[in-house]
Amino acid sequence: MLIDSLRVLKIKVARKFYISYFIIIMNKDFCIKNKKFQSRLILGTGRYRSLLEAKQSIEASGCDIVTVAIRRINADNIGFIKSLIKLINWQKYWLLPNTAGCQTAEEAIRVANLGQEIAKQLGQVDNNFVKLEVIPANKYLFPDPIGTLKAAEHLVKQGFVVLPYINSDPILAKQLEDIGCSAVMPLASAIGSGQGLKNIDNIRIIVEASKVPVIVDAGIGVPSEATQVMEIGADAVLINTAVAQCKVPVAMANAMRLAVAAGYEAHSAGRIPIKNYARTSSPNFDRIGQI
Questions:
Q1: Model confidence over 198-214: pLDDT tens digits?
Q2: Which of 175, 196, 253, 270 is the most exposed place for a label (fewest CB within 10 A)?
Q3: Which domain holds residue 86?
């Protein structure tokens, strides 16, 4: 009876410790500049099949930050984007305007300023955030490092909180940090491709070297890949196509939410060392037959 009581007490203490630890880990805010966010998943708004699907996916993701491509608002989709913007509760979500579709630094700077005005019209008067994209070629959609660096330097001087989208280049990431960017956003693989983590080793170096948040963006196709980049120490993940173009976007948005949280908690807990040989998980002494 005494042994059973001690076992129950031990289980209760362990559960209490785990719950307390889990609350501490999950309540650790994700900060960009001085702005705090609870969710480490950022969701894009492009390529959804319907407004309802987009709205429900945003809600299911548990995200705090929603990104909108300002440059890509055109005659074909302006109704969709305007309606989506009206549907979203901008007191709950933080707008991250992005400059997708801009081919030069000058164009990206103009679109960033337009995005800032849209944020203010939505009531976010202190929102100076911009996801900076400078992509000159439409075929491969790789960001221009020189144009990105040029636009970032200008926007930082203007007072923007700049989050540049870049190739997984550790040197460029450090240069952007040095000129005052508030985060860096290396791609995992080609944008919209769903190819997964083609650049995981470079991302690991960027995470190790960066003193600003590292947000992995582009190429992630499934939740396990989102978990993996969080496990190596990334601060957040931005997802769009993997949710918007899957069979059931709302379910995938929820799966990504759980995956990012699991990866972050796993990284915080710390993985076991990798060993060259097998090792038993139970003790080798006092085995039955040896007592």
A1: 989 999 999 999 999 99
A2: 270
A3: 36-267
